C-alpha cells in the first residue's frame, strides 16, 4: 500500500478507512512500540501510546494537515516519540535517549508537535461524548460519522419512524453543543482540536 | 419561531436538508443575527466532535480487535532473538532442545491449566486511558479487582462490554460455570462482543476440561478468517486441545 492510498483511505469512513487503520497497525505497531519500551516504557505504555498516535495521525490527515513531506512512517515516529516524551514529562521521568534517533526536518517536527497538542484534548472530548447517553451517541455517530441513511438508523436502533429519529438527533446535537461549551477553557481547547 | 424550531432549522441547514428558498431566507437571517450565527457555529462544532469521536472509537475498536495479533507480535521469539548474537542464539537453541528432551516437560505443557496460561490473551481495555466509561467496571477490571467487578452483576445499566468484563472476572476467579453462562448470553445478545465471547468461552470450556467443546469453538474461530481472534488461535493450540480429547 502506498502512502497516498493510505492518506486517501483515511479521509473516508467505512471499510476503506478500517483497512487503512489495520494497515497502520500491521506496518508500524511493532517498531513504534519497541521505541517506547526501549525508552523506559512498559508494553502497556507502548500499546496505549501507539493507539493515541494513530488517532492523532488520522485526525491530522482528515484535517488535510498531513502534507506528505515525510513518509507516514517517519511522521508516525515523530508523533509517537512526542506523545511518549510528553507522557514521560507528566510522570517526571528522565528525558528520552534521543541521540539514537534521526533528526527530522523542522517542518515535520512542527506538524508532529501540532498533532500532539490536539491529541491532549481529545481524551476530554471523548469523555464528553459519553455524557450525552448511549442512544444519543449511537444516533449521532451513525448519522454524522458513519453517514448512514435515516431509514437504516430507524431499523438498526428500533425507532418508530424517521421523524422520531430526526427529532431525537436534533435534541442530541443540541445537548452535546451545550455540554461542550459549559467549560470555557475546555471549549477553547476543543476549538483548537477540531478547528478545520 | 420557538427556540426548538430555530435549533431544528439550523440542524436541517447543516444537514443539507432544506429547500433553496428556505435556505436563502435563513442565510439572510444569519447575516443579520450574530446570536444565530453563534448557535450555528456551536452546532457545527458539535458535529465535528461527533466525527472525531467516531474516528477515535473506531481506532479503539480496531485496536481491541487486533490485540491478540499484536500480543503475538510483541512476544514473538523472532523479534527478540535479533537482539542477540549468533553465538547467543546457538546457545539458546541448545538450551531449548535440551529442555525439550526432558520427559516431564511435555506432560507439564499439556495440562489444561498450562495450555490456558500459555495461550490465553487478556481482553485489552486500552480505552481505560481517558475513556473509562460511566459504569466504573472498566476501572475495576483494569485494577484486577475481579471480585468488585462481579459485584456489579445485579445492575440494570450494564452494557455489553460490562457484561464481558463480568464474565472474564468470573473466569479469573475460577467460577467457570458462571463465566460460561455470561459468555453464552453475550454470544446471543451482543453484536459488538460476540467474537470476544466466542474466544473466551472456548477458554472457559478448557478451564472446565470440556475439551471437545473447547476444541469445536477454537476450531470454528481458527477456520473463520473474519473472526477477530482468528490469528490468535494457532495450530499449536488446536493440536494441544485435540490431543486432550483423545
Question: Which terms summarize this structure?
Answer:
heterodimer; A: 196 residues; 9 helices; 75% helix; globular; B: mainly alpha; Serine Threonine Protein Phosphatase 5, Tetratricopeptide repeat; 73% helix; elongated
Q: Biggest interface pair, residues each?
A: A-B, 50 and 36 residues
Query: What global shape of chain A is seen?
Result: globular
Q: What is the total number of structural domains of chain B?
A: 2
* Whole-angstrom Rg of chain B: 26 Å
The CATH architecture of the largest domain in chain B: Alpha Horseshoe
Q: Tell me about the largest β-sheet of chain A.
A: none
Question: In percent, how much strand structure appears in the residues of chain A?
Answer: under 5%
Total of DSSP H or I helical runs spanning 4+ residues of chain A: 9
Low-confidence stretches of chain B: 77-84, 127-133
Choose one word for the global shape of chain B.
elongated
Main pleated sheet of chain B: none
End-to-end Cα distance of chain A: 27 Å
List the SSEs and their pairings.
The complex is a heterodimer of chains A (196) and B (246).
Chain A: H1 3-10, H2 15-38, H3 43-62, H4 72-91, H5 106-131, H6 134-145, H7 150-156, H8 162-180, H9 184-194
Helix pairs in contact in A: 1-2, 2-3, 2-4, 3-4, 3-5, 4-5, 5-9, 6-8
Chain B: H1 3-15, H2 20-32, H3 34-75, H4 77-81, H5 86-101, H6 103-109, H7 112-119, H8 137-142, H9 146-150, H10 160-172, H11 176-189, H12 194-207, H13 211-223, H14 235-245
Helix pairs in contact in B: 1-3, 2-3, 10-11, 11-12, 12-13, 13-14
Amino acid at each position: 500500500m502506498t502512502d497516498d492510498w493510505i492518506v486517501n483511505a483515511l479521509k473516508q469512513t467505512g471499510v476503506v478507512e478500517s483497512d487503512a487503520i489495520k494497515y497502520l497497525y500491521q506496518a508500524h505497531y511493532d517498531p513504534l512500540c519497541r521505541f517506547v519500551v526501549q525508552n523506559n516504557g512498559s508494553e502497556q505504555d507502548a500499546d496505549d501510546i501507539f493507539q493515541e498516535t494513530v488517532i492523532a495521525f488520522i485526525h491530522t490527515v482528515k484535517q488535510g494537515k498531513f502534507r506528505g513531506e515525510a513518509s507516514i512512517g517517519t511522521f508516525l515516529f515523530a508523533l509517537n516519540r512526542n506523545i511518549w516524551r510528553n507522557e514521560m514529562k507528566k510522570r517526571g521521568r528522565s528525558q528520552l535517549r534521543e541521540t539514537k534517533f534521526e533528526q527530522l526536518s523542522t517542518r515535520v517536527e512542527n506538524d508532529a508537535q501540532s498533532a500532539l497538542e490536539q491529541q491532549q484534548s481529545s481524551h476530554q472530548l471523548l469523555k464528553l461524548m459519553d455524557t450525552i447517553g448511549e442512544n444519543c451517541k449511537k444516533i449521532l455517530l451513525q448519522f454524522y460519522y458513519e453517514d448512514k441513511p435515516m431509514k437504516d438508523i430507524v431499523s438498526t436502533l428500533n425507532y418508530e419512524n424517521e421523524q422520531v429519529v430526526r427529532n431525537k438527533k436534533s435534541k442530541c446535537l443540541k445537548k452535546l453543543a451545550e455540554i461542550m461549551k459549559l467549560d470555557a477553557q475546555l471549549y477553547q481547547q476543543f476549538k483548537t482540536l477540531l478547528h478545520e | 419561531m420557538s427556540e426548538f424550531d430555530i435549533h431544528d432549522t439550523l440542524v436541517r441547514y447543516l444537514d443539507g436538508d432544506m429547500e433553496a428558498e428556505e435556505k436563502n431566507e435563513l442565510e439572510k437571517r444569519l447575516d443579520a443575527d450574530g446570536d444565530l450565527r453563534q448557535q450555528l457555529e456551536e452546532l457545527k462544532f458539535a458535529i465535528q466532535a461527533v466525527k472525531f469521536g467516531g474516528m477515535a472509537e473506531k481506532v479503539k475498536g480496531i485496536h481491541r480487535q487486533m490485540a491478540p495479533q499484536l500480543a503475538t507480535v510483541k512476544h514473538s521469539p523472532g523479534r527478540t532473538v535479533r537482539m542477540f548474537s549468533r553465538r547467543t542464539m546457538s546457545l539458546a537453541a541448545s538450551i531449548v532442545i535440551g529442555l525439550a528432551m526432558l520427559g516431564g516437560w511435555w506432560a507439564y505443557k499439556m495440562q489444561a491449566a498450562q495450555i490456558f496460561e500459555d495461550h490465553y490473551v487478556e481482553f485489552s481495555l486500552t480505552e481505560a486511558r481517558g475513556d473509562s466509561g460511566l459504569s466504573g467496571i472498566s476501572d475495576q477490571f483494569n485494577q484486577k479487582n475481579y471480585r468488585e467487578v462481579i459485584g456489579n452483576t445485579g445492575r440494570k445499566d450494564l452494557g455489553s462490554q460490562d457484561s464481558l468484563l463480568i464474565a472474564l472476572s468470573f473466569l479469573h476467579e475460577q467460577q467457570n460455570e458462571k463465566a460460561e453462562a455470561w459468555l453464552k448470553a453475550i454470544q446471543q445478545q451482543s453484536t459488538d462482543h460476540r467474537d470476544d465471547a466466542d474466544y473466551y468461552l472456548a477458554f472457559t470450556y478448557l478451564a472446565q476440561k470440556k475439551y471437545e467443546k473447547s476444541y469445536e469453538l477454537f476450531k470454528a474461530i481458527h477456520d473463520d478468517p473474519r473472526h477477530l481472534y482468528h490469528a490468535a488461535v494457532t495450530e499449536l493450540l488446536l493440536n494441544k486441545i485435540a490431543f486432550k480429547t483423545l
